Amino acid sequence: MEKKIEVLKEAKKFVSENEGALGKGKGKRWFAFKMMMAKKWAKFLRDFENFKAACVPWENKIKAIESQFGSSVASYFLFLRWMYGVNMVLFILTFSLIMLPEYLWGLPYGSLPRKTVPRAEEASAANFGVLYDFNGLAQYSVLFYGYYDNKRTIGWMNFRLPLSYFLVGIMCIGYSFLVVLKAMTKNIGDDGGGDDNTFNFSWKVFTSWDYLIGNPETADNKFNSITMNFKEAITEEKAAQVEENVHLIRFLRFLANFFVFLTLGGSGYLIFWAVKRSQEFAQQDPDTLGWWEKNEMNMVMSLLGMFCPTLFDLFAELEDYHPLIALKWLLGRIFALLLGNLYVFILALMDEINNKIEEEKLVKANITLWEANMIKAYNASFSENSTGPPFFVHPADVPRGPCWETMVGQEFVRLTVSDVLTTYVTILIGDFLRACFVRFCNYCWCWDLEYGYPSYTEFDISGNVLALIFNQGMIWMGSFFAPSLPGINILRLHTSMYFQCWAVMCCNVPEARVFKASRSNNFYLGMLLLILFLSTMPVLYMIVSLPPSFDCGPFSGKNRMFEVIGETLEHDFPSWMAKILRQLSNPGLVIAVILVMILAIYYLNATAKGQKAANLDLKKKMKMV
Amino acid sequence: MGGSGSRLSKELLAEYQANPFKERICRVFSTSPAKDSLSFEDFLDLLSVFSDTATPDIKSHYAFRIFDFDDDGTLNREDLSRLVNCLTGEGEDTRLSASEMKQLIDNILEESDIDRDGTINLSEFQHVISRSPDFASSFKIVL
User: What crossing angle do the helices spanning A461-478 and A291-319 adopt, rounded to 10°?
Assistant: First the structure.
């Protein structure tokens, strides 16, 4: 009997808890309501996921390219889209935290000497030629460093502009590092087990078909390349290690490297000479210079970047390497060329900066003299003890100190713009006109233009990716001195995406030799990381060791740019915080922290090595079984 | 898309005309008795196996079934030689010669056939595929 009562109690409890689900009783409506809300929520989530997928920009374009050219060409456009995202964040940071506050709450154009076009240049300040060079009105605007005032707070919200300028600069660099490292670590996971060569043939047979290809012409190319691949691998396997004429091969390789070295040296010297000449031109009157003289240096850099890779290709013919190895050598050489060019450019720029800093001292002395004269003249006009209008000099008439930061910003902006133009013109002439010529003159030409020379161009993935990476390096270098640079780059990437998508579909043919894009992804990201590191080093050096100009920018009047942090700590934070931070920056503590970090790096390195060894051990065990 | 009763016959799979395994794919995923057309559910199955989110296990399982031309559960020399012929295209000049084919298949069996029975079964196939870095990115169709 007791058991029956227990069972009854349990049954009652069950029914009362699940009343709604059972469809009877009091809880029915509440339960039905809960179910309906849960279904609606699930539907909403699904719709939101669909919406997010539809929002991804340019997805259709990239899919079309993928099906026509295979995954390696599409990987370039995916990389371009990813860069666009990174640049968008940089642009939002600089625009909303630097340019917008200055525009809304800073003093307007014409109120301060540093914000006005000097009287001497006023007549030509709005000419297109001057604006294209980013002089004149463009120079004295929120686009460049020199426009910003050094007041500690601006506007009714007391927005601390110099602090924000400094912090946004550092944040941009930090964010870029984070995002590149995150992308790299994600790709390492995809790599699988690293490059094992144990299943060479099986992989070639089972995994070489790219299921994304939808175009018959590309499929034909893929068939050809797979067949070639098989035949090569088979002959490599069969051929004995015949060392035919090692000495000749070694001599030819040495010769090729020697030529490459000569080319690199030659291009470095050419750039240095062009920069020196541009300094001479800067001394002359701008109206006497033609278009070439004004843009000589940018043109030289862009043209070198265009022609030297073809020279490297030519020298590589001497070397006779396996195509994959030859590709790596070519990439390495182009990378060295572009890096060398960039660094020579920076060295020449540092030269100019030092010149301007010297000039500053002279101008400072001159200005004090000028001020003394003005005051004397003003007082002299009131020698009869009468009251006159207050002392006023129009800002355009005040003599100006040189501003090296704006000059650096201008150089980078000009370089970016000329690079963009060169790329587009190259694509138009090299790809489009060539394709038109081959297509239309084929009817009346002696040999078959489409199969022989010149035929249609193939899409040069590595060249384009390297150009993209180096452009990004220039943006990272210049954006501290020209806050408008990320914005200009956004425009550039946007138009580049459409233009290159059109050019690729219209004028290029799929590559005859189809390389896998999977492993190169980390290679390109690794180069991007290296460029990021190398391009932020000069900026950090300039921030830490060069004194800011006394007459322009948010840090004018300070001894070093980073003093703005110390100033903020003193004024805006309670005094106990400043005391704590001062204790923390005690040298002993800092050295201890550095030692701990070194030890941590050593420990992690040792753990990684140990785990790799354990991995290899396990692999061997599995093979034996 | 399809004709009668919304089924997809292999001639209408326009996107996969360039794919050398189009017939095998159709056979593997089709649930009709004649195994020559795909219903909507079959098409969904196909897309889900080829999508980004499918696990490597599933992909390798289906890849094995696609490569198994005679549907006997193992890849023997005949299957492998038909597979290689599919990959090298239809033209006479692109095919491998008999000696090259023999060499290639010998190499494959030497690498992957662990129990030395002259055929590759599912676990040996999965063993090889799981070590490949390119498989997941090439065995994928994203719409």
Answer: 140
The answer to whether B125 faces chain A, any CB pair under 8 Å, is yes
d(CA A625, CA A620): 9
Neighbours of A424 (CB within 10 A): 16
- Report whether A396 contacts A140 (CB < 8 A): no
Q: Can you name the residues that pair with B37 across neighbouring β-strands? A: B9
Question: A266 versus A290: which is more confidently predicted?
Answer: A266
What token pair was written down for A481?
Answer: 């001195």
Count of domains observed in chain B:
1
Q: What is the CATH number of the domain that holds B10?
A: 1.10.238.10
Q: Is A426 on the interface with B (CB under 8 A)?
A: no
Residue B142 counted as domain residue: no
Query: Could you report the predicted ipTM of this complex, rounded to two decimals?
Result: 0.77
Helix/strand number for chain B, H first, E second: 7, 2
Closest in A195, A208, A219 to B18, CB measured:
A219
Higher pLDDT, A6 or B89: A6
- Count CB atoms within 10 A of the CB of residue A203: 22
**Candidate from A193, A226, A238 with C-beta closest to B87:** A226
The torsion angle over the Cα atoms of residues A145, A149, A153 and A159, rounded to 10 degrees, is -40
**Backbone φ and ψ of B91, nearest 5°:** -70, 155
- Distance between CA atoms of residues A346 and A356, nearest Å: 15
Contact A231 B20 (CB under 8 A): no
Residue B40 in domain: yes
In a domain, B45, yes or no: yes
Residue A447 tokens read as 């040999």
Q: Would you say the pTM of this structure is higher than 0.80?
A: no
B28 part of a folded domain: yes
Give the Cα separation of A134 and A154 in Å (integer).
26
Please give the residue range of the domain that contains residue B106: 2-137
